[in-house]
Structures are given as C-alpha cells and as structure tokens.
Amino acid sequence: MCLAVPGKVLGIEERDGTRMASVDFGGVVKEVCLEYLPDLQVGEYAIVHVGFALQRLDEESARRTLELFANLGMLQEEFGDPWEQAAQATQPEAGEVRQ
C-alpha cells in the first residue's frame, strides 16, 4: 500500500536543478522532491506521496495523522524493512503448527 504521509522538512538542497528535501516521517527520514511545493521551507510539514511533497500541512494535523498511522501500524507497513515483514509473515502463530 502507498500512503500519503505527513512529514517534517529537516533540510533542503538542490540536486541537478531539482529541489530535494530530507523529510522526517515520525522517525523515518526519506528524500522527497519539492517540485510541486517549491516554496516549502525547513521546519514546515507536507503531505508526501511516492516521493513528492504534494500539499503543505499544519503541524497539529501532521502530528495527529502520524500518531494515528503509528497506532494502526501503518508507518511500519509503509516504511518498515520488507525482508523483516516477510519473515514475520512466515512465522507461525503461538500454538500453530505449519507443515
């Protein structure tokens, strides 16, 4: 699943003519393209989808959304290690016997 997730801009730089940002998504930092929000600044929040900042967001809304996603396990699903997730999916439940 690909979510549109709010994140906080930690730093901005230009790479090959494109504004890029380091964005913190509740402890996970990813690189994000700012071409759709060229005036976004360090410290601001944005909704990010598939590596692009799409919409500016206020801090309170961003924090509530990140908390909700974390409580539902959706941040781990979106940003977690796919190898770890696959290994966990193949582990038997307590009392379950797989053949």
UniProtKB/TrEMBL annotation:
InterPro entries: Hydgase_assmbl_chp_CS (IPR019812), Hydrogenase_HupF/HypC (IPR001109). GO terms for biological process: protein maturation. One of its GO terms (molecular function) is carbon dioxide binding. Pfam families: HupF_HypC. Belongs to the HupF/HypC family. This is Hydrogenase assembly protein HypC. It comes from Streptomyces spinoverrucosus.
